[in-house]
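pinned: reference chain
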Amino acid sequence: MRGRLALALLVAVALLGWNAYNFFLDAGSYLEGPARAPIASDLIVSLGGDGGQRAQKAADLYRAGFGPHVLLTGMETLPGSHYAEWRVHLLRDRGVPGRALMFDSSASNSWEEAVRTLEVMREHGWERVLVVSDPPHLRRLQWTWDKVFEGSGKKFVLVASNMQNWDADAWWREDNSKHFVASEYLKLAYYIATKKIERKVGPT
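pinned: its structure tokens
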């Protein structure tokens, strides 16, 4: 009897270990899973906290004709800040004219960026937005934007930037990717645990 119990426990531990190992291997792929191919939209949003890849992707999308406007979000977008000017120069150097640029510096996190973008879309009567961010950021964005956009009639498409050194199948081999993945799982857990789903975004 003891032998059977010990064997059962051993099998259970082995299964748990195997599942944990597979979760570890798939952690990067799961985070980038919501990425989609871009489609024609009314607006392209380049989210804050950018190292340059998001703005570059937004510029590429604009030049390819996927949207006529580019919205820069995040606290770093405050007028006159070095970071704001740097992103503007990057976009203009890549072919985005000043008349196509929009700015919002009121959002301090991913949730508020979604809320503010929805408000902008309502103000202009726009229906679809392309949301550009780094691959491991997209799972949390999907959760967030689904909640914010629910019932609004507006649509969003998540588009992955060309994040430097990102490899979803070997994310643990590069320091920046390791930190990004760990941070995203913690933030995703926080968003769910704090029940941000209960927040409302005003009248539709």
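why pinned: The chain has one domain: 29-198. The longest strand covers residues 128-133.
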